[in-house]
Amino acid sequence: MIGLRGGISAAIILILCTALAFIGWGAERAAQRTIAPEILAKANSVGRSAAELVERAGAVGVPFEHLVGVPVYFDGLRAANPEFAQISLLASSGAELARAGDASAFTAPPQARVAVRDPGGKPVGEVVIVVDPTAVSAQVGAVLVDVAFIGMVSLLVALELVALVVGTRGIGTLMAVERRLRALGRGVLARHEGGAGAERLVGPIDRHMDALAERHAAARATAEREGDAAALARLAELEARTGLGRLQEAESAAAVAVRPALFLFMLAEELTRPFLPRFAQSLAPGGGLSPDLAASLPIVAFMAVVALCQVPFAGLSERLGRRPGFLIGALLAALGYALSAASPHYGVFLFARVGTAVGYALVFVSAQGHVVDHSAGPARSAALAVFVRAIMVASLCGPPIGGVIADRLGASTAFTASAGLALVALAVAFLTLPAMPRAARAGAGIGLADLKGAARAPGLLPLLFGCAFPAKFLFAALCFLLVPLELQREGYSSAAIGRFQMIYPVIMVLAVPFFAALADRLDARAGFVIAGGLVAGLGAVAVPLHPSIGLIIVALVALGLGQALSIASQSALVADTAAGLGGGQAAGALGLFRLVERSGNAAGPATAGFLLAAIGFAPATALLGAVAVAGAVLFALSGRNTTRHPSRASSAAASEGSSA
Description:
The chain is mostly helical. Helix content is 73%, strand content 5%.
């Protein structure tokens, strides 16, 4: 039984896949009709230019048969136009006077033939340009790859926005009905919280459950009054098996309502990942600032501001209210993206990224606070898991879309698209997030004393600085700076870089739930944290063995697997430590965890930019990987307590696993 929401998702998948298949077929036919003629027209234009140059030589008295330097000139044309397989200069007799390239392997390839004439207008030869037919196929294939990735991303976006299409009240109704139907399908007869607004659908079910619970309670009272031990045993067994008379907590529709707005906002930032280093380099001033450092500074500034704002903004969002905090943050970020798009100067762009970071931090803590405010108990873990998935799916969808926009329309247009998405997220949050009453905004936040007290918790600092910091340090350095810049140097487009950046989130989305459950089942959270650090670090350390695209992919896969192994268990260990502390120190432990993680996000690109300029890509990657390996070893040697707390097995949901 897939459930109502699953059925809606399946219907959306079927409709969109059919539409995307049709669009892909149409795109392929359109590409074949347009790209090949365009390349042939380009060949004719280049051929005319070459023929005119030869004719000018003849006009000044250079004999056609004695031209020199023609092969070198043709080689330059082929280097500038790789789709040309061969360029030849033929005499009118058919003799080949000069040639660059070789098209003998192709059967009947497209050709452009342009006549060369003497000063009297008589044809004396021709320039022949043979088009490489595989280049046409490659360009058509590139278009189809872009269409395929955009189609896949569109599907994920559509699934994320189901809640927005159905509406908050509609989602609440679907959740209430689906929860009851799933329970009945499993033979569970417990009563359920929630269902406001769906009484006509769930009322009959709830009344039947109440009637059964009353009959069960009456039968138990009668058996107790008569001293019938056998009947009491059967009734107890029935209660344990079916949940009769129990009350199941409801999944909070209000907590789930933040998902569309959060997804759209995070998608806005993820669009910038593939092209941001290159764009920063294009704005960088000359002088003492190297291109690699120029690329890293905007990333470092963004991450540092997000890290520093996490703790104070938690209290600020409580005082402002979660909804106003989200709206203000989204507006600040939108202004930052718009300024980034319009900025012609590096300093202004750096300032714009700082403003975007302030908005990002405020949106993040407000959205997370909203989820916590509107959920409790086991439902809170489920709601936080929804929160995490929205961020991870955004990190999966954003880079390929942003890369395509930057390639086709330019980086400024991509930043403008981010600004537009941030404003759409603002509008969605305004329409869907409930306003909290004034009395509910009295949280005091986390103070410096709370952080200091939490730092004294046994085993917490080795976990944070041995695993949490190195994990984010390596992730941010590799995914945000080193890999994009190296792929750029290898000649890859922003769209291709965006596809490479999908590797990490795909692995995280697929593997985190599996490894989280396995770590709990084996009661080995600390072991999984150590293994994750080693896997992620060793993947990066291996890059200098044979620097290539293949080993870059290996490093990204190892990073994804390593963090999937460790991130849930790491968050659970922090939550276990926090649960053992009292009052503000518990919140302080979680706040310190976030601060250390965010500091790793900032320190990674800063260190990577310096190392990249000093020693190059492969050695820099290996050194950063060695930091992760050393941290995992130090944590293992610290003897961290591995006691498991089953009641908090799902606390990993508190870890956002985000890219920032």
